[in-house]
Amino acid sequence: MTLPIIIDTDPGIDDAAALSVALNHPYFDVRMISTVNGNVDIDKTTANALKLKAFFNSDVPVHKGASKPLLSPIKGASHVHGESGMDGYDFPSVSNDHLSSSHAIEAMRDTLINAEKPITIIALGPLTNLALLLNTYPETKQYIKDIILMGGSTGRGNVTPLAEFNFYCDPEAAHIVFNSGLSITMISLDLARQSLLTHDFLATFENMNDTSAMLFQIFQHYREEDFDKGLKLYDVFTMLYLLEPTSYEVKEAKVQIELQGSLTRGASVVDFKSNSPNCNVVMASLNDNYKNVFLESLRER
Predict the structure, then answer these.
(1) Do 140 and 129 meet the contact criterion of CB atoms below 8 Å apart?
(2) How far apart are CA 81 and CA 224, in angstroms?
(3) Closest CA to 264 of 166, 187, 156, 125
């Protein structure tokens, strides 16, 4: 049995890890990849998605999406991911000629309504494309099984004291998604912070195969917080959770996004006591299985 998915992404080194799992593991049936402005600008995130598609000799269509947030000024994280967004590995050059022709929002609509069963959307970056999809084509909701997204936190942020990067980049988009009535699972900062991948563990990636060697090289250029202790590969946990959901602590909550506060804009307000939850929040791993699942997902098949 496979899981049909759409991946919305802003690669990004941790996005590259998530995409590598999705494009390599037989459980995932990737129907399309859409790109969004986020870690780096839209031209670079799109180029990076095309580079990964070529690396895996994949025929999954890549569609270019939103170049800026709904209302906020453009932000970026090249200081974390490098100037290209995936510094550290010498990918062959790619051309926009390899892009599929339709805009990401149109492609998402077409992919959803023409699918034989509802599709899970994996959102790895700011939620701009998803908000545009839901506002432009609200009829697509019935074709979406779940949204599994990386974003938010139950406490401290990673770009401001309270805001996580993806939500901070486009709070209005996150607000639209969390109020859509769809089934949402939030992979929060809490999970990756609790499930740090040490440098000793990542060293096992260096010589396993071409995929792991590529990831090992770009991991050396990832400058998230606590890099000296290990890597917090936030986005990859969307895929690892789907591969083994029983290995994680999950709590229902009402999640709302702060839009007005001058010091708290983009913060995720998580209420575990609400009588009207709108989200499952993945809090922590219950064991160390995620390490083996990650390694096994990258093995040649």
Answers:
(1) no
(2) 8
(3) 156
